[in-house]
Write a structure and sequence with these properties.
The protein has 215 residues and is an alpha+beta fold. The protein has three helices and 13 strands. It has a seven-stranded antiparallel beta sheet with strand order 1-2-11-8-13-6-3, covered by helices on one side. A hairpin with a 2-residue loop joins β4 and β5.
């Protein structure tokens, strides 16, 4: 079921069925063996995130004492990030219609009291591309508002298999995860929620130029 939650915010309830969720999870966990979850830290305080993270794709989003940024390798293993699962690339094409594939799939693991405070996805140059998010596992209370932190917002319960996208007027909307509901899904081994966030980092023309020999 496709729902327009707000201008630029679209939710597909149950877009990914249980069998497909299980197949996607296998793809995710296979890649996690090569790029294990780790706990990022805040740039200023050094406080650890409550979520664990990893990435797939040519670029991965990281946070540490040097700030927020994208880089091509895992900050702990130093190995390149694994590729983005083909199922997610197909989902990106089918739902966003964007002219280029995502370069980053940020993978967040929520367990227990893990949460994600309100924030903007603003470390990308290609802000004409939407952000696409896939939920696997336990239900989560997702909040999304406008372009100011203190503006009006709404709360949406996301279930395993739900897909949500925000772009256009909502591309820089503040959003976050207030809490998860442990035990509401049996999908993820050990319990919890895995969120997969697909982002295009660089404009297509810029990334093609970077790929040229000597460029």
């Amino acid at each position: 079921m496709k729902l327009e939650i707000a201008p630029g915010v679209v939710l597909w309830r149950g877009r990914i069925g249980r069998t497909a969720q299980e197949a996607l999870l296998r793809e995710v966990l296979c890649r996690v063996e090569r790029a294990p979850f780790y706990r990022p830290t805040m740039p200023k305080s050094g406080a650890p995130f409550s979520v664990e993270e990893t990435n797939f794709g040519s670029l991965g989003w990281v946070s540490d004492s040097n700030g927020y940024r994208y880089q091509p390798n895992h900050p702990v293993t130093r190995a390149p990030w694994p590729d983005i699962p083909p199922m997610l690339l197909a989902l990106w094409t089918a739902t966003t219609g964007y002219c280029a594939p995502p370069e980053c799939c940020l993978v967040n693991l929520y367990r227990g009291t893990a949460r994600m405070g309100l924030h903007q996805d603003r470390d990308e140059v290609a802000t004409d591309a939407p952000v696409l998010s896939v939920s696997l596992g336990d239900e989560a209370q997702f909040r999304i508002g406008g372009s100011t932190r203190k503006g009006p917002s709404q709360s949406i319960m996301l279930s395993s298999g739900d897909v949500i996208a925000f772009g256009g007027p909502a591309r820089l909307a503040f959003h976050g995860i207030e809490r998860i509901r442990p035990g509401t899904s049996t999908l993820v081994p050990g319990g919890g929620r895995i969120n997969l966030t697909l982002r295009r980092v660089r404009p297509p023309a810029a990334s093609k130029k970077d790929a040229r020999p000597g460029g």
